[in-house]
């Protein structure tokens, strides 16, 4: 009989373990994957959300995985091929059209409808256009940035300049006065051989009505010729082609080597930190100068997008991923994240609130309303190839290897060769329409 009792105990123990072990097995793990520096503001914001969520939901483990920028895109593509995408996938915004096409992101349109369509319509148009295809929504851009004119007030005053320039002609005139009065450069920008070079050229190109897909047209030639002239006349350092990135230009600015620069709002979280701003005591920000009075500065936008990995099928994991996504994309969540991160919100309601708290961001926030998504005006999935062709042309013109006309004619021919005739015409037309709409 003892063996019967033993068998009974074993059976009961089995039921016990099955019941409680099953409950334990129901604990799910949800991964949020991004390239944000673990020591930075956005990473800390995400970590806090995860900690608070897990306290309220002990049956959920939220992992925040950091992958360096250079490794993230190939990692995402490999994960998509192997069906191992994390539940929450962050991407740099120019990658998003390609990632949607590659099937990386889950269609969240129905989720957005349940959330409230007014939330979606609160996003600036450019960000809606970037993260949706054929009326279907795949991601949210939650933080953005763009380019404006930084200036040192004290240096302009010493040169007898009462306010920052508003047009290209004024930028040239002001730079000449600064060079003569102070012996320093008037204006700095980044023309490095990377996307940063193309990105800094785009405001001059688009504000003049030019297009990346029609570089042999006069609007593009005028834009590049203006920058070449700034270098040739000694108003801008020749080393703009040799800098490692936009941060080098900021160092010139901090050191008083240039009185004005084209740069982005992220610099308030990197090089122009509160203590540096306090030490300098004279930093101002204005809209980028435009070709002529009355024109609008049309800038590209940067920033990151979050979406749900396409292989997220488990209802519990999907629910947790959506809770994170809908929180960080909410007006309040987005405001809090960007205050900590140093970015700009992509929703109008959140932008109004951050402007009241950080007035120095006002020019960036105004430009964000009509800033353009680079892939949609630069050949969609071929944008990286278009961009490399553009920065190569910039470098050739700025170093004197080619005239602006010659460099851009070669670039235009190379860019057309990236597409079929039908593709090229469709993308060319789309770019023209978006640039014209932004200029209104």
Automatic annotation (TrEMBL):
<comment type="similarity">
    <text>Belongs to the bacterial solute-binding protein 1 family.</text>
</comment>
<dbReference type="Pfam" id="PF13416">
    <property type="entry name" value="SBP_bac_8"/>
</dbReference>
<dbReference type="InterPro" id="IPR006059">
    <property type="entry name" value="SBP"/>
</dbReference>
<dbReference type="InterPro" id="IPR050490">
    <property type="entry name" value="Bact_solute-bd_prot1"/>
</dbReference>
<dbReference type="GO" id="GO:0042597">
    <property type="term" value="C:periplasmic space"/>
</dbReference>
<protein>
    <submittedName>
        <fullName>Sugar ABC transporter substrate-binding protein</fullName>
    </submittedName>
</protein>
């Amino acid at each position: 009989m003892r063996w019967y009792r033993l068998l009974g105990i074993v059976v009961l123990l089995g039921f016990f373990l099955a019941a409680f072990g099953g409950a334990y097995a129901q604990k799910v793990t949800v991964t949020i994957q991004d390239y944000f520096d673990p020591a930075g503001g956005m990473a800390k914001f995400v970590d806090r959300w995860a900690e608070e969520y897990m306290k309220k939901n002990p049956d959920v483990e939220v992992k925040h995985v950091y992958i360096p920028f250079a490794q993230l895109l190939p990692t995402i593509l490999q994960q998509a091929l192997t069906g191992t995408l994390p539940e929450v996938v962050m991407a740099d915004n120019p990658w998003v059209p390609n990632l949607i096409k590659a099937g990386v992101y889950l269609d969240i349109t129905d989720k957005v409808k349940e959330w409230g369509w007014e939330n979606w319509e609160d996003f600036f148009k450019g960000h809606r256009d970037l993260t949706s295809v054929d009326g279907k929504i795949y991601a949210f851009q939650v933080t953005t940035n763009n380019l404006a004119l930084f200036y040192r007030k004290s240096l302009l005053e010493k040169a007898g300049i009462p306010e920052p320039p508003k047009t290209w002609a004024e930028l040239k005139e002001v730079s000449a006065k600064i060079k003569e009065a102070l012996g320093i450069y008037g204006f700095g920008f980044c023309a490095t051989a990377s996307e940063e070079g193309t990105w800094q050229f785009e405001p001059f190109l688009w504000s003049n009505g030019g297009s990346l897909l029609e570089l042999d047209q006069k609007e593009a030639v005028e834009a590049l010729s203006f920058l070449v002239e700034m270098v040739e006349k000694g108003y801008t350092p020749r080393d703009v082609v040799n800098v490692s990135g936009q941060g080098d230009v900021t160092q010139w600015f901090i050191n008083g080597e240039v009185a004005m620069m084209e740069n982005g709002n992220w610099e308030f979280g990197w090089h122009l930190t509160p203590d540096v701003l306090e030490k300098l005591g004279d930093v101002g920000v204005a809209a980028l100068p435009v070709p002529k009075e009355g024109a609008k500065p049309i800038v590209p936008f940067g920033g990151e997008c979050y979406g749900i990995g396409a292989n997220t099928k488990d209802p519990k994991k999907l629910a947790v991923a959506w809770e994170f996504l809908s929180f960080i994309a909410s007006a309040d969540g987005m405001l809090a994240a960007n205050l900590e991160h140093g970015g700009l919100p992509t929703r109008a309601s959140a932008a109004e609130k951050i402007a009241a708290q950080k007035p120095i961001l006002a020019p960036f926030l105004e430009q964000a309303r009509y800033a353009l998504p680079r892939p949609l005006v630069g050949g969609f999935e071929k944008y990286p190839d278009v961009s490399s062709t553009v920065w190569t042309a910039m470098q050739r013109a700025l170093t004197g290897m080619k005239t602006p006309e010659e460099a851009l004619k070669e670039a235009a021919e190379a860019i057309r060769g990236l597409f079929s005739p039908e593709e090229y015409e469709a993308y060319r037309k789309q770019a023209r329409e978006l640039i014209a709409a932004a200029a209104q």
